[in-house]
Task: structure prediction
Amino acid sequence: MLFYFFKRIGSLLATLVVASVVIFTVIEIVPGDPASYMLGLNASDDTVNALKAELGLDQGRVMRYVDWVGGMLQGDFGTSYTYRTPVAEMVAERLTVSLPLAGYALSLAILLAFPAGLFAASRRGGAADTVIMGITQLGVAIPNFWFAMWLVLLFAIKWQWFSAGGFPGWDAGFWVGMKALSLPAIALALPQASILARVLRSSLLDVLNEDYVRTARAKGLTRRQALWGHALRNAMIPVLTIIGLQFSFLLAGAIIIENVFFLPGLGRLVFQSIAQRDLIVVESVIMLLVFAVVMVTFLVDLAYAWVDPRMRRSH
Amino acid sequence: MPLLTLNAVAVSIHDTAILKNLNTTLDAGQVMGVIGESGSGKSMMALAIMGLLPQGSALTGQILFDDVALNELTEKARCQICGDDIGMVFQEPMTALNPVHTIGQQVIECIRLHQPISRAAATALASETLSRCGLPSDQFPLSRYPHELSGGQRQRVVIAMAVALKPKLLIADEPTTALDVTTQAEILDLLCSLQQEDDMALMLISHDLAVVASMADTVVVMKEGVIVEQGDIEPVFTQLEHPYTRALFKASDHTPPRTAPNHRALVNHSAQSESPLLEVKDLVVAYRVPGRGWFSRANTFRAVDQMSFSVNAGESVGLVGESGCGKSTLTRAVLGLMPVASGRILINGTHIDEGRHVLKQVQVVFQDPYGSFNPRHKVARLIAEPLNVLETQPTRRERDRQVVSILEDVGLLSSDADKYIHEFSGGQRQRIAIARALITRPALIVLDEAVSALDVSVRATVLDLLASLATAYGLAYLFISHDLSVVRNVTDRVLVMQSGQLVEQGDTQSVLDHPTHDYTQRLVASVPRLPEYAHAAIDTL
Result:
């Protein structure tokens, strides 16, 4: 088990190094010089060169890569070209919205998907199964911004239970913040819950056909006991994979929903930075997202080993 | 009063009748053997008793157990009986255990489901039951996971789950079919002693007449969902009244008529050289096994260790040994599918590395008649595929002619060339596999458990086919099998393999009748045998 753990850590570090090189290289070859962009079209060459020196853009590529990575290791992500504020602060501020939102949406998705998937699998082919499959089909198909707008129309405008957008900040209180994130979280959770429920159902149906479920039934377990006690844990592997992918997606992919609800999240930050050639912000946020994805994958790998003992000795 | 009574039991799945009007009884403490070929409904009968029939099946009639009609109970009431008064052991030990629970958890679960005892008491009982079943807790702690055990050991865990609560009836559905002969003998001994110690009734389902004959008091013979004959075992097995029972006996000890190969066919293959057709010299095939520790070097595992043997043109040579002894690795090496660590494999004196023209002399037929064909190709394409490796490609017309003539040679119709593989039965698929092997006119065919998955009657016809083809085409066979009785009937010489090494070889008859090596002796002694009375009956057939 320990071997498995360290092996995963090793591959995690390797992934990060490769990703940082790729990100740096891609940003390097993107056309557009941040210094001239910041100073406008009429700036003289001298001013541009002076700004370049200030931003460290006049150094060699290798040097700049080393500076960038070294800085990040110390928590220094550089200074935004546009806002002249430390990138770390900007990102941290956005994360206080994006991270809770992703967690909230994923929790909702899991809470919806597990009962639905289990219920559908245990009543395969029945009316409940058909209805749940129909709803999840819709859930996958409906664009989430359209669904979000309906949520706003109904809950914010018609019944006025929630505000239509914006985020008051956590200083206003935990529940106030959670309330503001509720509609966006629901809008994000619906398609994710639908996907998760469908994966769980089909994974459970596969496992229910396994010999060991029959053995469990021969021991005298009822159909339901066999489903909970023997099928569910074995059906978790594909479900865990999907949950990991969904968390990574929700962290950065919520940009459309952030726009619908005027939320100051990571997605909008990346979008704005790209538009303004604020490459250092783009670089840092992407690196951070890579880090998040790699960490989630690592946790999912650990969860695999926890679920299935055969994974623990995998080489 | 009988313990178990089936009263006009019939089962249909989606309106297709699977079991028809079954009437039989089993007394307490008795052993009932159930025999029949695949599709005869043996397993369905067991599942019907356990209430585990697949979805969409309808049961009529009555299954009485201890005077309770099982099929009229609610799911809950029935679950209280299953696992407590009736235990069941399945065919596939590799998949019958839940991979994510320890063996201890799985036995304890069964105990606590039916008895209101503490976890500690249940753990003690589980440990005791496992050691009764041959898994003492000092060597096999309850914390082991199924993947850490061998097939035979896993089957012991399944048996422990079934007998932990001392059921009145144990149903064993082909409990040893997936196991080696030596393991099979151990498991049968275990079942036998458990049955006697606990005085439980045993329903033993098997396709193997000798296994049933050695254990059962009564026997039920099934065919196509109907019980065709039943009664005490000795009269049934001596009188062989029903034609189906007789056919089963005849087929199970089938010796194909073998004649010396056609001389002209033989000359074709060995004209070039005096050397044997296949010569294996000091062959070593090794796998890399990752080291256990952090920085330990990878170890190598010698799956085939210094083997030397030869097969002459037109000869049929058997290769026997337990699973894991290296049979399959050896096969792959001979087919040129595995890198060789050292040693040489020569075909007609030429090293197999020297190209496809050497390898085309050797073809193979695998065990699984279902998995070894691409389901989307027509038979003609499947059979003609090996021709692609030849240096001179035949024309399309020539190709079609060859396919048709080979199909006829293996006992199929020329019109079968246009069909897909799912339209054929297991025996017919194996004929197609043989046709595919024959099309390059090889001198040697490796039969890797080629008849093991077939029913006895089908197996007999395939063995006949192989014998006649050997004569017509001058073929040599390397016949790999775990079934010693088949090896005895179809081979001239036999090689006995243990842990990658050749421990004994020689004339089949003398090796199997007078084995000299310990391992061969153990192997031969483990083979279940029909009792004398049945032998007498077979002789009169």
